[in-house]
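Appendix B.2, paired examples.
Example (i):
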Amino acid sequence: IHLILRSVYPKSLEKVTQEDLYEVVSNINSLKKKKYKGKTPNEMFIEHYSLTLLKKLSLRVYKSSEVVLLPYIHF
């Protein structure tokens, strides 16, 4: 996960907003993982807790095929 974050964000996180972080984490957690038998971290969280709690944490669920992780550009 650290390597994915580093591929998106520059070394300095000074200009990165909390909302930007939520968006990237939501995308990362929507990627399927072998260790979860093809499920996403979001799916595992929802199974153990709830979608309501995930949303209260300001996170979103995306389809794995719709995940976008591009380098961060702050305007």
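Example (ii):
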Amino acid sequence: MRHTNVVVIITDQQRADLTRREGYPLDVTPFVDTLAQRGAWFSGAYTTAPVCAPARTSVLTGRFPSAHGVTQNAARDSALRTADIFSVARAAGYATALVGKNHTYLEARDVDEYIEFSHNGQITGPRSAEEEAFDEWLTHLRHRTSTSPSPGGVEVQNPHRLVSHALGWLDALESDAPFLLYLAFPEPHNPYQAPAGYFDVFPPEDIPDPRVGAEFLDDAPFEYRHLRRIGESGEPDYSEKIPRARANYLGMLRLIDDQIARFTAGLAERGVLDDTLLLVTSDHGDYFGEYGLMRKGAGISDFLMRVPLVVSGPDVAERGRIDAQLVSLADILPTVCDYLGVGVPVGVQGRSLRGVWTASEQPDRFDDVYGEQGIGGARFTPRGLDGRPLPGLPVGGEPEGAPTFDELNAVTQAGRMRMLRSGPWKLIVEHADAARPVIRLHHLPTDPAEIRDVSAAPEHRDVLADLMRRLVLRQIEVEDVLPVPSDGYERAGTAPGGGQRT
């Protein structure tokens, strides 16, 4: 019996719309675009949360942050531990590997091969002198924007090194051994940098302007204005560097695309490509200059929430773009279970996508998608910061140079926001404090930057009521941390998992 191998390729902080297949005028990801047309891709794929650790924990567990318990990066070890993508694969007899960025509760013992990288370079495993030197340069860049090409060339960049490690691991496997590989590029997340050959491939003057500029901040919620303020405090010439940051971001996306092409060619050379399911996605997006901002932090706009999702491999019909289905990163684990031929573990809230891209069904269960943001508590106001340091900037003890700044701080992450998209409509509900609930409704085709709230318009009353009903039902669903598996899966025979906090 031939097994289906699985490779989950996940980038960090990649906008979904910066590709030719999405209509972007620059050819940023030509190989993945070709992969998408040969297989399938979702224009309605969403993260579960616009923050690294919550989103990545959802990929592993198939559950939303309200259920798995990780709502911020600092709390990644607080996850309610049940079965995950690696324990399921191991129980099915698969060799497993994590190569790249982790940023979850996982430890090296949870997989057969563990090579960890971060935004500052390699964390585990041997490095050459050239790689060590580059990692030191990355560290001293301090998550900022490089105004010149990165030193060392392509070979020392994280994406190239990750692919080399992954292919080396495949070579060490026994012949015909089934495998599950989680290949996690730490880029194009800041620091925004790119080596020669990629630094100038997209000149700043050739990049289309953001849909909405810094003028948005004049009347924006305080957390957006605070994000801009700490950016200006933490990085000199913040505004002037945004065009360069955008150019570096696109250059890094092209480098990643070339490395995905190299990795896929490596699968073909080893004779396993035809038996391998490839899923290419990201944990969340990046402002990319929208609202006069880079990185992430405030809000729950589609710039941060919508992610790429490209699928290729066995049983994947040549579907190209799939418009109608709205899907989530929480759907990856149950999809993998489907291909492994095992039951979905207790507690999984996502649903298998296999029937969508094989064209064997058009399930209406994918007619809306849900997402979360925030760590709770009341929102900050300018008055609430009087006399205190800016949240997001460190106080003392920093190395020489301008201080780093953290966009995921007490101001940008306070409160709780929930979103639900259905068709062209997106509902956002925010509980900032009991006296200040916020309900917003946006028509995405005419308001892609989500700056015009039409929730009070009488002609949209029925739309608002329908989305509010759907949101309430989804909230009830995701708050059940151990739901009974649905869609015909039985409890008996599911992968192990106990639901005990570790």
